[in-house]
Amino acid sequence: MEVTYVKAINQALFEEMRRDDNVFVMGEDVAELGGAFKVTDGLLEAFGPDRVIDTPIAESLIVGAGVGAALLGMRPVLEMQFADFISCAFDQIVNMAATLRYRHGGQAACPLVVRAPSGAGVHGALFHSQNPEAWFTRVPGLKVVAPATAYDAKGLLKSAIRDDDPVVYFEHKRLYRSVKEDVPDGDFLTPIGVAEVKHEGRDLSVITYGGALHYSLDAARIAEKEDGLSVEVVDLRTLLPLDRETIVASARKTGKILVVHEDRLTGGIGGEVSAVIAEQAFEYLDGPIMRLAMADTHNPFSPPLEEFVLPDATKILQAIRQLAAY
Amino acid sequence: MEAARKPEALAGFDVLSQGDPDLEYYYWMKLVRAFEERVSRLHRQNKILGGVYSGAGQEAIVAGICAPLKPDDVVFPLHRDLGVFLLRGADPGRLMAQLMGKERGFSRGKDSFLHAGDVEHGVYGSTSMLGSSLPVAVGAALKFQLKREPRIAVAFFGEGTSSRGDVHEAMNFAGVRKLPVLFVCENNRYAYSTPIEKQMAIENVADRAQAYGFRGHVCPGNDLLAVLQLSRAVVSRIRAGEGPALIECKTYRYHGHSEHDPALYRSKEELVAWESRDPIQTYEFYLQKKGYDLAAAREQIDQKVHAIVQQAVDFAEQSPYPAPEEALTDLYATPIVRNPLGGTPVTVVRREEQEGGGNVRKGD
Hints:
The structure holds two protein chains of two kinds. Chain A contains eleven helices and 14 strands. Chain A is an alpha/beta fold. A seven-stranded mixed β-sheet of chain A has the order 3-2-4-5-7-6-12, sandwiched between helices. Chain A has a five-stranded mixed β-sheet with strand order 9-11-10-13-14, with helices on both faces. In chain A, helix 7 (212-227) crosses helix 11 and helix 8 (244-254) packs across helix 9. By secondary structure, chain B is an alpha/beta fold. Chain B has one domain (2-331): 3-Layer(aba) Sandwich (Rossmann fold). Chain B contains twelve helices and seven strands. In chain B, the strands form two sheets. Chain B has a five-stranded parallel β-sheet with strand order 1-2-3-7-6, sandwiched between helices. In chain B, 46% of the residues are buried. The interface between A and B is large, with 61 and 61 residues.
């Protein structure tokens, strides 16, 4: 059945809450309102107020209370209304949840999901557009995922809920209703920690994730049609742990790499991807590893500013052509 | 104090096997004090490294609060609440091994001091970002409420910690949902070196409870009988579904913030005044008044306590240090499917070894 990205997330929540009584949803405006983006729409009616819990505006409490419930066997799915607000819960995620199992010597587990609606291109300006995933991809104990398709949005959320570790789940706001695709009925999982080649190619690899995947696929198709280039597009899907196997295999295959993400350039996951390739596929490279990412600035509001700093299909196509010509 | 004569629900509150709760409390406070003082000594001898935060002088609080708890309640102690581990039934040897960074410690050498809990006994470790464990305790209480379990969560914190935003977020949500959680404030008057006058504009932390819609109680924290009387009543009200409560215990820490800290910011006079209200000596006075042969009771209990502490030290000293690779374990409960994390030695990958061919660039 054809479903939108947002509906796929909603379906995953419905199915997992039906499957396991210990799964519950908690966050700001998630119950009566069904979430600011309607991601949790219908859950209150279906599961009642003990499974769908509105909280005060208190992100640290939301995650911290999720940790406490998770320690005692629950599987909370915690919503940050916007990923930007995750900074208010930073300590609970990186110092409390991520260290819990480690400092308890394996005596305890912390099975929770923090859902974080992220991403630009929706005129959200500085505090409703951020892609803060790289703050978390260097924190051992966490898993970080960022689905780009409706299929993976559903499959990764189901995996995240069943995972016994804290998972930060970045869902891209721009994709909620712009991505619509066939998603099989019934139960399926996208494994955490496994990237996917979304489009096979021979000449060049674009390695990307999240909102930038669709721009990359568009650019790859144009490059094939207009330039006769065979462009591979790899969707990382999970940012921690990084699937180095798939990254290195694609690099060895094509020898030319363009890493694309909507997160800022400096300190973004693209740097780590580049380093992995430089270490493990150096002798296979036919050109410099290139990165295309958001400019190192804040997420600006006015449309010409926002378009200027963000990657899009046109900019990716330009980069593909440059790299192909090297 | 008729209530104090009833047997405690907490397993382990008949260690002396005399069926006498009065002597049990004496024993527990003496054990916590002896353990703490030994820890401080071991720190001076460089046998315990890192930060050591003594709770000496605050024993009546952990004993009085933990006494009415049941084995399936959960407790979130902070850094000065080593006594909570002992009162909940943690193995003293493993606790000492934890402090020494040994393999048999609760975190198997991964984290220092009280950051590891003893999950088997319902004790969860805190982080150093004090106050962050209060939302977690509230989440545990939320679970008990959602699952209709007659259990309670207890969160310890200091007046210093009470300035953190997490404390406000936790208490507010606990009040909104009437969660079964007890907040215990150990007000020892100093946040490291900062006196209470520079921390808050009101007299009592407990006064804030009213703003969250639940009851706050102030009690003399060096008086076991006062703490006990209050904690019994409050714990039973929370267990009956009346919602959260805050107990503030006024007390004083004998040592500095940590063992590195000579605490020169406090006056000798102030320390002496509080030492004269020592919780153990205050309790001894009570026993004497009640007709106990104090000298005999003290001798019997000191003997037992020192034997336990010595055994704990022996156990910890005999425990090996963990293998270095232990540093990379217990990060994840669900194993990573494809690639291990980085940080292990890098090996250079040569194309000829991969393909059996020469080192040829694709474009050459």
